[in-house]
Amino acid sequence: xxxxxxxxxxxxxxxxxxxxxISPLPIPGVQQVSSAVLLGVTLCDTLSFTAHVDNMLxxxxxxxxxxxxxxxxxxxxxxxxxxxxxxxxxxLRYAICVWSGFx
Length: 103
Prior knowledge:
- The protein is of the alpha+beta class.
- The chain has helices at 50-72, 77-93, 96-99; strands spanning 9-11, 31-33, 35-38, 41-44.
- It has a domain at 43-103.
- A hairpin with a 2-residue loop joins strand 3 (35-38) and strand 4 (41-44).
- The chain starts with 8 loop residues before the first strand and ends with a helix.
């Protein structure tokens, strides 16, 4: 298997507030990051899902704004419900079993 080093990232998980934080040396050619998006879920090096929840709220508020515009243009309610289920609820339900315990 050949790894594409341009797309490869390294994340080192640690405690949120350690007394002494010694990060291992990065792998040559691989960028070391503090957060990464895997399958649509933002993982932080402290295993905090704050960044993921903030990102979800931002995306959902943008989509709700678009729904409001469609409602103001006279789109029927049952179409708005279908669009809400597709755009907002699906985004919130995805992988909720992973990060919901941190809310």
